[in-house]
Specification:
Rossmann fold; 8 helices; globular; transferase; tRNA (guanine(46)-N7)-methyltransferase activity; S-adenosyl-L-methionine; methyltransferase
Length: about 260
Amino acid sequence: MFPDDPIPTEATVPDDEPAGTAGDPAANVAHPRRIRSFVRRAGRTSTGQQRAIDELGPRFVLPYTGQPLDWQAAFGRAAPSILEIGFGMGETTAHIAQLRPQDNFLGCEVHEPGVGALLKLIGERGIDNIRILQHDAVEVVAHMLTEESLDGVHIFFPDPWHKKRHNKRRLVQPPLVKLLASRLKPGGYLHCATDWEEYAHQMVEVLSGEPTLANTSEAPGGFAQRPDYRPVTKFERRGLRLGHGVWDVVFRKRG
């Protein structure tokens, strides 16, 4: 439906700027300085991506309202609800949505080229079970998602901020995990994946510290086998060729 586009580096990562949610019961969702679920970066929106935004955005992109989301109205049906924080260029999101047509997927991504790229995939593949919020995911979770409204959360390859002095900028931190856990239904899952081993161990430690969550894996280190629904992306294959590992962490909300 749309011209082929270049594939920029995929990433939606945390920032250490204040997020400004005074009076919010989730005001401590992150570090004392607060985090965003992204860092602003330059990127050109291609012609094909812009056309997808213009033609498909009115149907698939939801406005940020700061009010509880009506999932049935947004998707035109009642179905299990999955949140993805930072979908990059959307290839994984589109793949999983096609593989799991029985589920509704809400993707949060602030970068316009990524939003356009996912909309382009939606149009090309005829996908109907994805909606997009082009807004900071932390604020979306805090203000638009109610308690026990989610069946799953995906956080795939967030920026590792590998320098020790930057670790505090990482997205997966106790306050955000606590907030996400409150939005999960009993039995709902939180699935993180990273190609940075030290961050993977931190993810296990942080999720293990949330008393409402339980690790689905009993393997050494607490890492899970990659679930069948998560594809091996181009980004991941490139890392594996370079000898990098990939770690999946899957926890469930206690009943």
